[in-house]
Amino acid sequence: MPIVAALLSVAGLAGVAVVAPILTARRAAWATPVVYGASLVLAAILLMCALLALLGGSAFQGGVHLPVGLPWIGAYFVLDPLSAAFLIIVDFGAMVASFYAIGYGAHEEEPGRVLPFYPAFLAGMNLVVLSADAFSFLVAWEFMSLSSWALVMAHHHDAENRRAGYVYLLMASFGTLMLLLAFGLLAGPDGGYAFSAIRTAEHVPWLTGLVLVLMLLGAGSKAGLVPLHVWLPLAHPAAPSHVSALMSGVMTKVAIYGFIRVVFDLAGEPAWWWAVLVLILGAGSAVLGVLHAVLQRDLKRLLAYSTVENIGIIFIGLGLGLAFKTNDMVGAAALAVTASIFHAFNHSLFKSLLFFGAGNVLTGSGERDIEKLGGLVHRMPETAYLFLGGCLAISALPPLNGFVSEWLILQAILLSPDLPQWALRFLVPASGAMLALAAALAAACFVRAFGITFLSRPRSPAAETAHEVSRWQVRAMYALLAVCLVAGVFPGPFLDALSPVSQMLVAGAMPKQPILPHLSIIPISESRSSYSGFLVFFFIMMASWAAIRVIHNFASRAVRRAPPWDCGFPDASPVTQYTADSFAQPIRRVFGPIAFRAKVSQTMPAPGDMAPASLTLSLRDLIWEFIYAPIESAVLYAAERLNILQFLTIRSYLSLVFAALVLLLVLVATWA
Amino acid sequence: MGLILAILVQGIQMVLVLALAPGLIGFTRKVKARLLRRQGPSVLQPYRDLLRLVRKEAVLADNASWLFRNAPYLIFATTWVAAALVPTFAAGLHFSWAADLIAITALLGSARFFLALAGMDIGTAFGGIGSSREMLFATLAEPAMIMIVFTVALVAGSTQLSTVAEFMVDHSTLRVSLGLALIGLIIVALTENARVPVDNPATHLELTMVHEAMVLEYSGRHLAVIELAAALKLLLYISLIACIFVPWGMARQNDGVLGMLVGVVTWVGKLSIGGFLMVLFETAIAKMRVFRVPEFVGGALMLGLLGTLLLFVSRSF
């Protein structure tokens, strides 16, 4: 059975993690390819198991009960459509990242700090998706968090990375605590923590509502939902690039899996206000994430903020799914849920692609600040081409895959006037507008990211002397871009494959996607809307082929190279070109005053005065100021007050212990 | 046989939009000149310009990359496909089911993406300023467009343009939401086509320019292809407004050759009326400062949202 093979592979990954330190100590040169090669093979086996379980039907699904973990309870593991779908996301990403890392890892200065934790991280993520009881789920979750924390701290000499690790650890423990409480509330009769027991138990509505809030805090903080995203733009760039790709592209999806598992599968019937909460958080994340991204100068941090945006888009889809599910609109709910899982898959592809691209830039030039790059299209042509593909996909442009999933979510929004609740009727189109705004801003963000990094003239010696990277790194990216294109041009089979998942979550599925006519995809029915990625792709290819043929046959083919015209005043100095900051300035000026309370103050000395003029820009992170800063100061205040407890006499300590004991005994006596 | 005929009609549509686009530009220039009491160049001048550009050698900057040379074809191809998917003289063409209005918007987004990148390729300040402003306007114009699509789709029950056009012919009533959508769409069209209150298509060396700044380094055949794409885009938007709001005269799915001919004649009529009204508006208004434009386009976004919300309140608005 696939589940057994999957668990054995996870055990294999854990084994690799154990062997890795010995390997690095003995044969340092061999360690990197061996560890990543083994991870690659094991991830491939896991991917096969997941594909079998999702496509092969119920014969290949099923669970096992192992006598490990808590005494008398043991550990349950299951491979059902939902876990299979997310296992595919995890292990495809893991496979490509391992392949990439065989090349990228050669540049690692301290492989001993990365190699043992990498397979452990993969094992943790796989185990979260496979586990079917609260205890193993939480242990695996914590395992995943801690191993990824170790990877964030891999380059711990940098003070910024240490801070990232600290914030990450704090937020991860907070998230796990929330999940612990959520599962505690969900326990079945006589404390059954297996998912099957939780699913059949009866829950009071206010209690499941509380579970939703706790899940939003717990899984949402891991996924990077605003306002719990603060750790993400710090931690994702700090890790080595293949790990950044996994954290941003894959680990956030594991968090979304946790959310879907509990909210759609375990908690029972949703209430309509759940959708309100999820939609508001999703729409807020989408817009705020991309607004942050468009102002970033650090390429990897920009990508991390863009993950916040895409998580927001996925949550908008899930919120729609909840709204339709409570109102028994099965077809619409299936559409929304399928669209958001498909977007999760797509995001794992293009975000990994882009992080790999950032890794190539980092190895090729040693620079992450896009303000110091430029002109890399000449030095790293293949990376530039592949990164451009990723930018097109993430900006939701046809015929790539990002467009298909966003299109499906927009189609789901168009079904919402049938919702009976007024709050939802107003909120849904508003979140549609936010989604469209986020998509448009994402295009601006990635024009800037690609244009400043790869186009124009080099802005620093690092960019001038950049070089193309190893074949492994480039080939891993080709694989991702190819899947992006296939999922965009032929989305039908992907949507069909997700139908058992939506069947399981909302008891309905999208219509079976037809092959004829023209490989179109149909969200609800043919009369409402259809889109054919294949035809759009085919038409674009035909039209550009025709244009090129006509031009080359009939037009002058003469080409002359000359200095840039630049309105007659060309200046060879690269500082005369547009910079990342100047590109973002108009967007900052339009959206900044609302989102960041942006203020520009300038002092201009009087004519004749020799004092320098100055321009200062202040951007305020309102979320940090209004949520985290008060908590921080409250904790500090309490800590200072409680500090006196450190300097008591032994007598006072003893009386303190005695008082506590008496108090507890009284409490127990009155409770019972 | 049916399929071959369908492909033939679709092919005619593709060729027709391409053939008429420079003529539309020439017509608007002529009308504008006449309104300003100038004689103006011939309506055929854009065709001559294109031919002249095509025959010239292309001058490329020293550091132009492959992207700079390939972008014009991609911009042209995506715009052409988008223009060919808008029903012009006939609704229900065989391939109009390939993409709905959202996909057409996104196709134009692809063209804009490549245009903005091409503007940044050489590394001149002008290219950067054009790209930066183009993307700024797009961040508001694109969501506005999507909200307008929502409004129209909620009225007609579909995002497919052919269905929308047929619905409008059969159930023509005056609706508040459609009025809001029309104003919004006109604002979006003016912004996207770099027309007067937003950008001035007639200027070259002026700091307020957007579209021209991006294509400043292009010459010869590359410039010709980009100019043709810009003309196609104008034609697309006027056809789009005509298709949604005045679809009468368009041939139906099973109308014969005569119906198609009537469709072509009425479409050309609609194009000239649309172009004339646009130029009339342009001559009556001054260009805006760059940072007034987001307010102008933001207005379109609000109108679209308002239209959508009205329909959520009651389907009869």
Word description of this protein:
The complex is a heterodimer of chains A (672) and B (317). Chain A is built from 25 helices and five strands. Chain A is mostly helical and 672 residues long. Chain B has 317 residues and is mainly α. In chain B, α2 packs antiparallel against α9 (220-245) and α4 runs antiparallel to α5. The longest helix of chain B is centred in the first third of the chain and has 34 residues, at 2-35. The radius of gyration of chain B is 19 Å and the shape is globular. The termini of chain B are far apart. At the A-B interface, α15, α16, α17, α22 and β3 of A face β1, α3, α4, α5 and α9 of B.
Short description:
The complex is a heterodimer of chains A (672) and B (317). Chain A is mostly helical and 672 residues long.
Largest interface: A-B, 89 and 87 residues
Counted by DSSP, the helix tally of chain A is 25
- Global outline of chain A: globular
Assembly context of the chains? heterodimer
> Rg of chain A to the nearest angstrom?
26 Å
* Integer-rounded radius of gyration of chain B: 19 Å
Instruction: Give the beta-strand count of chain A.
Output: 5
Approximate helicity band of chain A? 55-70%
Terminal CA distance of chain B reads 44 Å
> The biggest beta sheet of chain A, please?
2 strands, antiparallel
- Quickly give the structural class of chain A: mainly alpha
In N-to-C order, the SSE pattern of chain B is: HHEHHHHHHHHH
Provide the residue-averaged pLDDT of chain B. 90
Point out poorly predicted stretches of chain B.
none
Sheet-strand content of chain A, in percent, reads: under 5%
On the 0 to 100 scale, the average pLDDT of chain A is 91
Helix content of chain B: over 70%
Structural class of chain B: mainly alpha
Biggest sheet layout of chain B: none
**Order of H and E elements of chain A:** HHEEHHHHHHHHHHHHHHHHHHHHEHEEHH
Number of strands of chain B: 1
